[in-house]
Amino acid sequence: MLRLFLTTLALVLGTTTASVRAADVAPDVLARTTTQDVIAVLKQDKDIQSGNLNKVYQLVEAKILPNFDFNRMTQLAVGKNWPRASAQQKQALVTEFRNLLVRTYATSLTAFSNQSIDFKPLTMKPDDDDVTVRSEIRQPGGQPLPIDYSMYKTAFGWKVYDVSIDGVSLVTNYRASFASAVRQGGIDGLIKTLAAQSARAGAQAKPARSGS
């Protein structure tokens, strides 16, 4: 389920059209219109289909991660322990959390098959700056899986700071494991744990698979 979730997340938040600035696009429109673009790339790019992780890393770095606010995500995930971290530790936490998600998303993209995504209508006021974009992922033979994106408006457009799959928050889920790591080894222990998880995510990635 985690791989399915991350694949969907990567698809929905893939890229923006060249003719429209992200800052000018409503959050639900941004998510819906970019999905088709990313799916098209995944279906056509034989290197990604064959598991070329270097190319997938480039795709993730260039097209997916700019839509996230990793500083806010990390702060929320670290929770009450965030004020305990020094400025250097905070930067290290953001960097390692980002690295972990880069590797995880990249691996997930190579597993893309034939999922589709339906978006729910979004009602928002002109001055709203924090919304939840609701969607469902559909795949043959499976039940629809609800996925909600918590997004807030910045000077650079709408950014994601949390995602929930079937009611389970990504930030909240990480917060529990982060708190455990801090209890065992302090802030530096959490940083080391994130680095180790990132290394494992890269090592577990399959070098190639046949395209479809």
Brief account:
The protein has helices at 2-12, 27-44, 46-49, 53-64, 70-78, 87-109, 170-204, and strands at 116-119, 130-138, 145-154, 157-165, 168-169.
Can you characterise this structure?
- With 212 residues, the protein is an alpha+beta fold.
- It has helices at 2-12, 27-44, 46-49, 53-64, 70-78, 87-109, 170-204, and strands at 116-119, 130-138, 145-154, 157-165, 168-169.
- The chain has a five-stranded antiparallel β-sheet with strand order 1-2-3-4-5.
- α1 (2-12) crosses α6 (87-109) and α5 crosses α6 (87-109).
- The radius of gyration is 17 Å and the shape is globular.
Give the topology, please:
Elements: H1 2-12, H2 27-44, H3 46-49, H4 53-64, H5 70-78, H6 87-109, E1 116-119, E2 130-138, E3 145-154, E4 157-165, E5 168-169, H7 170-204
Keywords:
212 residues, Nuclear Transport Factor 2, Chain: A, 5-stranded antiparallel sheet, 16% strand, disordered C terminus
Q: What pattern of helices and strands is seen along the backbone? A: HHHHHHEEEEEH
Low-confidence parts lasting 5 or more residues at pLDDT below 50?
14-20, 206-212
Number of helices: 7
Q: SS-based structural class?
A: alpha+beta
Strand residue percentage: 15-25%
Distance from N terminus to C terminus (CA atoms, Å) equals 21 Å
Question: What is the typical, i.e. mean, pLDDT?
Answer: 79
What radius of gyration results from the CA coordinates? 17 Å
- As for the number of domains, it is 1
Shape: globular
CATH C-level label: Alpha Beta
Widest β-sheet, arrangement of strands: 1-2-3-4-5
The main sheet comes to: 5 strands, antiparallel
CATH superfamily: Tgt2/MlaC
Helix fraction, binned, reads: 40-55%
Q: Total number of β-strand segments?
A: 5
CATH topology title: Nuclear Transport Factor 2, Chain: A
